[in-house]
């Protein structure tokens, strides 16, 4: 990661945890980092998954560096899943998202604001969070969304799997949006520049607006956890727990108390083709909208003082 991202990128500072650290940090016995003999193949894309012709392995995964046999396979591939498992083509649709980490303006509180924001409008929205005090780049704003600000409301970002490029209209809007929302309360740009980092990533969306989690219908021991609708950081950890529970054969009514039935993979869900992005539009709940506007005005008052 240091070679690809550069020495200064926060992701390049990642280190593997010991077995005890992994159990402590990820709250589970037998977490991947605590399993001895783990072989992690980086920069090795999976090109194809097929049934094995014989032997102990049910599945064969083809890669540029050779093939791997496995008894059980998990596709945690989100917006790329249809490439490996064609039955979800048109069921899980990729969407390229754009995000920027921005240094706050000179009139903004250096410790950051007290809440997160969603800026919701008729055909889309932006979301904004802040790096908390004590963290790297504390006070920075991280803002994303804006996909409908491109021509044709960014329609061509749907179905896109290239995260090495960025739409120029969306990219510019993301760079300008935070300062635009805070107006005169932004002040001047930071002397080191407004943008610390800007990037794109591929998300996965379904027609129903929910992830697909479980065994692929009719495909024994081919499992998936995908289509997180841009909310993977919120959903992934407990989704992983649910998937492993299913794989261990311990899926029962008790799991329904904490894992939504609507997230489960089924043959019926494969009939729901994606026909648009209506589910992506956040609901304009007037009470929540008024509360958000009140909080924004309170933060502006804080900035003035």
Could you explain the architecture of this structure?
The structure is a single chain. With 305 residues, the chain is of the alpha+beta class. The chain is built from 6 helices and 11 strands. Strands 6-7-8-5-9 form a 5-stranded antiparallel beta sheet. Strands 1-2-3 form a 3-stranded antiparallel beta sheet, with no helix packed on it. It is globular. The model is unreliable at 281-296 (pLDDT under 50).
Q: Give the tally of β-strands.
A: 11
Structural class: alpha+beta
- Measured between the Cα atoms of the first and last residue, the distance is 43 Å
**Tally of contiguous helical segments:** 6
Average residue pLDDT: 83
How would you summarize the topology of this molecule?
Elements: H1 2-5, H2 19-26, E1 48-51, E2 59-63, E3 66-70, E4 73-75, H3 81-84, E5 92-102, E6 117-121, E7 124-130, E8 141-145, H4 168-182, E9 195-206, E10 212-215, E11 222-226, H5 232-247, H6 286-304
Parallel strand pairs: 4-11
Antiparallel strand pairs: 1-2, 2-3, 5-8, 5-9, 6-7, 7-8, 10-11
Which labels suit this protein?
305 residues; alpha+beta; five-stranded antiparallel beta sheet; three-stranded antiparallel beta sheet; globular
